[in-house]
Design goal:
Blueprint (H helix, E strand, L loop, with lengths): L14 H15 L3 E5 L6 H29 L10 H40 L4 H14 L8 E5 L2 H13 L15 E3 L3 H4 L3 H4 L4 H11 L7 H12 L4 H11 L3 H8 L5 E5 H5 L1 H6 L7 E4 L5 H9 L1 E4 H17 L6 H22 L26 E6 H7 L7 H11 L1 H20 L8 H8 L2 H12 L6 E8 L3 E8 L3 H10 L2 E6 L5 H8 L5 H5 L2 E5 L6 H4 E6 L18 H17 L4 E5 L2 H14 L1 H6 L4 E3 L7 H12 L14 E5 L17 E5 L9 H13 L8 H18 L10 E6 L6 H4 L4 H4 L3 E3 L4
Parallel strand pairs: 1-10, 1-11, 2-4, 2-5, 3-4, 5-10, 12-17, 12-18, 13-15, 13-16, 14-15, 16-17
Antiparallel strand pairs: 6-9, 7-8, 8-9
Helix pairs in contact: 1-2, 2-3, 3-4, 3-9, 9-10, 9-11, 15-16, 18-21, 26-27, 30-31
The structure holds iron/sulfur cluster (SF4).
Cofactor: [4Fe-4S] cluster
GO molecular function, one term: hydrolase activity, acting on acid anhydrides, in phosphorus-containing anhydrides
Keywords: ATP-binding, Coiled coil, Helicase, Hydrolase, Iron, Iron-sulfur, Isomerase, Metal-binding, Nucleotide-binding, Nucleus
Length: 783
Amino acid sequence: LPTPSEFIFPFEPYSIQVDFMKALYQAIEHKQIGVFESPTGTGKSLSLICGSLSWLRDHEAREDKRCKELSSKQTGFKNNVDKKNKNGDRQSAMEQIKRQEKRKLQLKKIRSSIANYSLNKQNESKSNSYRKKVKIYFKSGSHHIFFQIFFCSRTHSQLSQFVKELQKSPFGKQTDPDGFQVTMVGLGSRSNLCINDEVRKLKSMNERCLEMQKNSKPEASSEDGNHLTNTIVDSILDIEEVVKKGRSLEACPYYASRHAVPLTQLVVLPYQTLLHKATREASGIKLKSVVIIDEAHNLVEALNSMHSCLVTAKQISKAHGQLTRYAHKFNTRLKAKNLFYVKQILYVLQNLLHATKSMNFVPFTVIPTKGGASISKENKPKLNSRLLTVNDFLFSSKLDNINFFKLLRYCERSKISRKLSGFVERFEQNALSTANTNSTPPTKSEYDVTMASPLMHIESLFAAFSSANQDGRVVMTTDSESGPTIKYLLLNPASHFKQILDQSRAIIVAGGTMQPSSCLLDQLLPESDAEKHRSRIAEFSCGHVINGATQLLPIALSSGPSGEEFEFTFQKRRSLKLVDEIGRVLVNISNIIPGGIVCFFPSYDYEKYVVQRWNEAGITAKLEMKKKIFREPKKANEVDKLLVDYTRCASNKGPGKQNGMLCGLLLSVVGGKMSEGINFSDELGRCVVMVGLPYPNSQSPELREKMNYLDRNMRHTDGRSAGQLHYENLCMKAVNQSIGRAIRHRNDYASIVLLDKRYLRPSITSKLPTWISDHLTNHERFG
Ligand code: SF4
């Protein structure tokens, strides 16, 4: 397909948006792996929507044309040497035409079903004939009939934002019945979509929902459920709107949206649903499509965390007890093969329990790193940990003779954990009612305890034990709070990304700050096919919509007003002189910046230490003469209130205006409760100050093992090992995430002050987004 020079867009697009859409269109057309960087505020979501859906529209038109041409050549193949292939082509073309026709028919049926439903509601006597029609519709719609685009993002609110943008775009208005109309569904978890308030209260809502369905039909197979699915397919609705419709129809939005997947071209879904194989398959996702992963700066971390798992000794013990009772009760009724596997699971659980009890911990040795980390009060390991390869762990736990592939397959096929959950529910309820002479029903918490199925959780550990030895590690830990735990730590996310890479037509990873992209790709491309996939990579990075020369002032400050050098290494950062110097910089900035100031600290501990010192040294009092100070809370439920108060203060809508200056100094923490999804646009962040370089704790056994893994498996770059680069990249990603939130739209402006002389090192500067680094200036001192 030739790349269009113009794209339909809700308004006249900026040139960077046109460039973005052109690059996106080409990447999808040429089946590439696209890395797209577009700073927040540049309309990335709209560009993704209009670029990718323009390609989908053109692709469908091309396929239509190709199929019609091929099918019309029916008699021309008779004497052709390539007859077999061409006939094959023709056959597939005919099938495709049939699919296209079926699709149009489906959409017509959906519309007429919706119309009939309304009529039917007015005249209940017609309901029987209507029910018949709906059932037929569901049978025929059970397989995929569209080429699909999967759009995934990390959080529910990011997905909602995307759907809102789609609704605003020209593709969100379904007015042309014969032209290109996008059909869309948003997938969410039961906790987002369930409308049964009793089930919603439970921790074990998945199990309870499945349990309820044993006794009754799933709610989505009802007439109202079908109508809800039809409504989803026929409109562009975000999850809140689907839930609202589900409540008014009394039909389950969770199942209705899953039923809509095969009927839609655009599926909007969270990371977990796309990136986790079992969840993907359970949701009916077929990958032969285009995959767009937004907010992909944390893709590697997301893959690592969703494929890592942690089980506590308490969970193992509980699962062992439940399964023992289950085996005892059904001993004579279980088939020999099932009994064999149940006994094998019991053996595994027993040995895991034994392993947690007999852990002879060796605390980690502390190795200083080039990033400046060493032993300090803050980074000393607080836990006793032991780290082993999977094979070593299985050998030492006497589990090396267990075939975890087979065991896992048995668990999946027999649904043993679900059965166990049902069994425990009955067992515990009986026990409770026997013990309770008043026959009071179990309380909600009692019910939660009985419904929880630790075996389901432990099955993820079985999956981890069946993965390649080099792909992960087992970390055994104990602490006073959670007791002994066994954790599987994934080191090689490429092993879980491979299927997506191999099966998708094109993959687009997009984000506001994708630099350094080599680090992301090195970890996502499987070593065996790395060269093949490297040839597919296309990178696109666009500048900001603002004029960097007049709307942005990024400064790297090497020392403060009294000449104290800024270098916030772990050894130096608790120096009182240094802490006082941060205060002096902030007092000076507060004197000249009329709007809100956000100051980021590397950790909660350090922020607390600094504020304590400022209180003693009278710096807080000086700051408060100019700005009302807000401190980021550690508890997530206190964030909203703080934000409301800070916003009112910074935008001068609340009390706190002093001397004609707008007030508000927010002390925030990198990677803290406000680290994502909160913007400091306009007056909320006229200046962002970053104190030091927020390197992660280099003594964390998990980080050290990850660095060792990268050193062993990845190449050196510019004389530096992959582990060291990873360590630095984690830090710079956190910096970019924090400082990038000051500019959110084309009329916004802000200054960014980086307090540390290390920001002037080329290796650090090169990891800042170019729209910041291009304008970065160095100031020896300030004030
Ligand atoms: S069927 Fe739907 S509404 Fe009912 S419990 Fe399950 S998720 Fe909730």
